[in-house]
Amino acid sequence: MRMINSLALASLCMAGIAFAPADGAAGAAPDASSTVAGNAPVVETKTVLKQNGIKRPDAGSVTGKLWDIADEESKKLNAPAPRKTVVDRYMKEQPGANNATANTQYARWVTYNGASEILKANRAATKTAGAEAKEKEKAEKAAAKQAEKDAKAKAKADEKAVKDAEKAAAAAKKAEEKAAAEKAAADAKAKAEADKKAADDAAAAQKAKDDKAGKNGNSPAK
Fold it and tell me: What whole-number distance in Å separates Cα of residue 125 and Cα of residue 82?
């Protein structure tokens, strides 16, 4: 609340020339020639804005420009503007700006507005948020790395499974072909043996017939 009130005061009470009636301490009373229509003379006095032991520089002056920027940026954020935001903008906009002067004036602006503790709390919050973001990023990178590793392992396992399946299919085909060949060879052998037996049986039958015919005085059949 103190900071908000201070910023409000800074925005409303711009340094400049104020007009106030002279009092007895201002000097001797002027003669009639210095009065207008018999009214009391007007004396120009410069209003000096000062709080927390710090005097606010004139608005628009080289140093006052930084204060003006700080006020503007604070209104945008609805909070005291951080050093980098103010100083960077000042260095960009103010011809011949000096970085050391800019930082000094920023520190004076902070003291003037009593914003030190708020800025400190904001920096701590930003640091915490940054640390949390960093941890989150680290966790996300680790997760992505693990996911990539898992994906490679799966791809490798899938490739092996495909190769194993192809190998098994080839082995099964080879076994099937071998079994078919063995069966064909066995069938051929069985057929040959059956044919031979049939031929042998036929020859034996013919011989028996011939022998029988010979015993009966008949010539063997040709």
Answer: 13
Q: Please give the full DSSP string across 147-202, using - where no structure is assigned.
A: HHHHHHHHHHHHHHHHHHHHHHHHHHHHHHHHHHHHHHHHHHHHHHHHHHHHHHHH
C-alpha atoms less than 13 angstroms from C-alpha of 187 in its C-beta half-sphere: 6
CA distance 61 to 105: 12
Per DSSP, 20 falls in state: E
92: tokens are 């960009």
Residue with tokens 């966790």: 139
Backbone phi, then psi, for 97, in 5-degree steps? -65, 145
How far, in Å, CA of 121 to CA of 135, rounded? 21
Q: How far is CA 206 from CA 122, 158, 196, 211, in A?
A: 123, 70, 15, 8
Reading the chain (222 residues) residue by residue, the pLDDT tens digits are 444 444 434 443 433 322 222 333 333 334 444 434 455 666 556 677 899 999 999 988 999 999 999 999 999 999 999 999 999 999 999 999 999 999 999 999 999 999 999 999 999 998 898 888 888 999 899 999 999 999 999 999 999 999 999 999 999 999 999 999 999 999 999 999 999 999 999 999 998 988 888 887 766 555
End-to-end CA distance of the chain: 140
Q: How many helices (H) and strands (E) does the chain have?
A: 5, 4
Q: What is the CA radius of gyration of the chain?
A: 56
